[in-house]
Write a structure and sequence with these properties.
- Helices cover about 65% and strands about 0% of the residues.
- It is mainly alpha-helical.
- Helix 2 runs antiparallel to helix 3.
Length: about 110
Amino acid sequence: MLAAALAGGLVMTGLILFAAELTRKAPPPGTPSGRLLASGRLTAQARRRGLLAVVLGLVMLAVTRWPVAALAAGAAVFFVPRITAAPMMYSTVASPALWLTPGATLRIFMSTTY
């Protein structure tokens, strides 16, 4: 029953937004388009990565039948290259993560006085 009420609410929201879009005033001349695809702001690499994310998400959905896993796989394909391509803050030699091995963490904890 709750699902039917939510679905009806979503349909009504969609119809209201559709009517609002049809009756809105035209933007003043010179206003850039809000459409991401129409303005050509997506590079070929971003389009290719987006297509690969969708394809891999669908493959993951077909294999596992888990929609959350499919969304996670698609998001990983799209966002992980951006995250890992960012310049590192520290060199690998001086990384604090390398200093804090379990033994070093224990020694630091044991040496603190309260």
